[in-house]
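Entry for the shared binder. Reason: the reviewer on the internal report wants the predicted structure included alongside the sequence.
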Amino acid sequence: MKIAKKANLPKISLAVAFSAVVASCSQPSTTPLTDSAPVDLEAIALSEPLSIDGSSTVYPITLEMAQRFQREKPNSPEIAVEFSGTGGGFEKFCAGEPDISTASRPITQDEMAECKANGVEFIELPVAFDALTVVVNGENTWAENITLEELKTLWEPGSTLSSWNQIRADWPNEPIVLYGPGEASGTFDYFTEVVIGDDGESRTNYTASEDDDELVSGIQSEANALGYFGFAYYKDAEGSLNALAIDSGNGPIDPAGETIRTGDYQPLSRPLFIYTNVERTATTPALGAFIEFYMANARTVVDDVGYEPLPNEAYTIALDHFTTQKVGSVFDGKAQPDLTIEELLQKEADS
């Protein structure tokens, strides 16, 4: 996905309160939430600049959201959109730096403790579902699917697998060239937890980057490459990459919006989040305006970027959590594989 690595958007403004359009989980409405009440535009225009950092997976959603916000509502403060990986974003966020931290996994217990120690309260807002995608070069004619056990054997610490035929005997005796996220990445955290079985544990002899565009370019340039990242980056480059179907024990399942919705693409389906600083929200009108705009337009933007939108009801619940300042996380500081969209919605509704 060829996008700027850092977006310092010119002055962009406004915010509005939004009414809820509630839909069922199984057949969510595609109608975005709508504006409902006036806001203090002068206060928003005088707000401090906004800062956003964190996940490269969530980055294209947030960048597109900020750009649409700019086009629709001029004259508000600058918004700086960056990525340093989910872990890198939380490190800064819990130190009180960016207004919003984007994440491709839930905030961990250690990160929550660090936020608490620094007096940073946060609101957790799910924004999309992703199919973490394992890809190969488009010239690869032999690999169409891979099992979780094969992925574990390939990526676990100390793995000595170095050629394709060491994964499957009928694959060619060609070197396998690995690309993957760096250790500050939430995608790395999620993959290692659900595939390896130990968060943060992985072989280290691969090309690592928190920049998914670099991973895409590397795999495109190497015929024997294999790597993993968020679904939207694969979709943007699918003419030159092939996605492998994942077999978790019930046969190979392709990554796709439909298999996310049905809950079949497990355990590599996962929710994506933004976290906002409560104190900053209270003192920066433009921040509240942007969050409300984000929730109201998430369904459309998420779909346009290439991830799976949540039902409108989920965005309604998230907006309610934001407006009522519901602090904390509904997760237990860890990834929860096999979580479906419906289960996420229930978890949020029950919190």
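Summary line for the report: Residues 2-38 have pLDDT under 50 and may be disordered.
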